[in-house]
Design brief:
Elements lengths: L8 E4 L5 H12 L3 E6 L2 H15 L3 E5 L5 H10 L5 E4 L14 H29 L2 E6 L12 H21 L4 E8 L5 H14 L3 H11 L8 H11 L11 E4 L9
Parallel strand pairs: 1-2, 1-4, 2-3, 4-5, 5-6, 6-7
Helix pairs in contact: 1-2, 1-8, 4-5, 6-7
Length: 259
């Protein structure tokens, strides 16, 4: 299927690895001019080279911390009129809520709620004027089923979800959609960090913990970044203009709810 995205311009945040990289790869395959952002230059440039070699697409890089005002300004200067924005930022650390002071909460809310809102605020009017826009926020299944050790993430991402529910309905008439993708257990650095934390707390080997996590999932495996990226690309497509304000769970069936 042709997703109707050839020649569009995209900003993909935190895209040097993991789910952001998967999204950038999938968009590049569709002929999107992709600008990928991350804080580390070496991994970012390696990812850009890999995507260019595999797809032939135009891929630009920007070393920036998207959670800062300076980083966001640099991203918008590099791509002043994006057609697609994929918001993504590393999740806050796991732990016990008793360990987190106000500074920890402010950092989590800034990275996982305020930053994507500020980027949406900056690009949405241009998208409305051009009659095309696709915004995808990578969040977490924790907004539907909170994860006890990820309280910082549960709180910050739930705030973003509530905001998106309102704003998405205000812009869809202009062919601008805003949706959230909620990854479950994907084999990323983030999951490996959570597994290591659990192993340390229980005194079990990390691989034993990971095997238990895999077997606990109905799919009996972790997800991979390529399949996540393909789903993201479809939501960004010309065919998805009637799809907005949704929280799409991608977790191999782990979420047990009916709705």
């Amino acid at each position: 299927m042709d997703l109707g995205l050839k020649g569009r311009k995209a900003i993909v945040c935190a895209a040097s690895k993991g789910l952001g990289k998967g999204c950038a790869f999938a968009l590049a395959r569709e002929g999107v001019e992709v600008t990928i952002l991350a804080r580390g230059r070496e991994a970012l440039e390696a990812t850009a080279a890999e995507i260019r070699a595999a797809t032939g697409a135009t891929v630009r890089t920007l070393v920036a911390d998207i959670t800062t005002a300076e980083g966001r300004a640099a991203a918008l200067a590099a791509v002043p009129s994006p057609d697609i924005l994929v918001n993504n930022a590393g999740g806050p650390p796991p732990g016990d809520f008793r360990e987190w002071d106000e500074t920890a909460w402010q950092a989590a809310v800034n990275a996982n709620m305020v930053t994507p809102i500020m980027l949406m605020r900056a690009v949405v009017d241009g998208m409305i004027a051009r009659r095309f826009g696709r915004i995808v926020n990578i969040t977490s299944t924790s907004v539907k089923a909170p994860i006890p050790t990820l309280g910082l993430s549960n709180g910050a991402r739930a705030g973003l979800t509530g905001f998106v529910a309102g704003i998405a309905r205000q812009v869809v008439a202009h062919n601008v959609t805003i949706n959230n993708l909620l990854p479950g257990p994907f084999d990323t650095d983030r999951l490996r960090s959570v597994s290591a934390n659990l192993a340390a707390k229980t005194g079990r080997p990390v691989e034993e913990v990971r095997e238990g996590q895999r077997n606990a999932n109905p799919a009996k495996r972790f997800g991979n970044a390529d399949e996540f990226g393909a789903f993201c690309a479809f939501i960004c497509s010309a065919h998805a203009s009637y799809f907005t304000g949704q929280n799409v769970v991608l977790d191999g069936g782990a979420y047990p709810g009916t709705f």
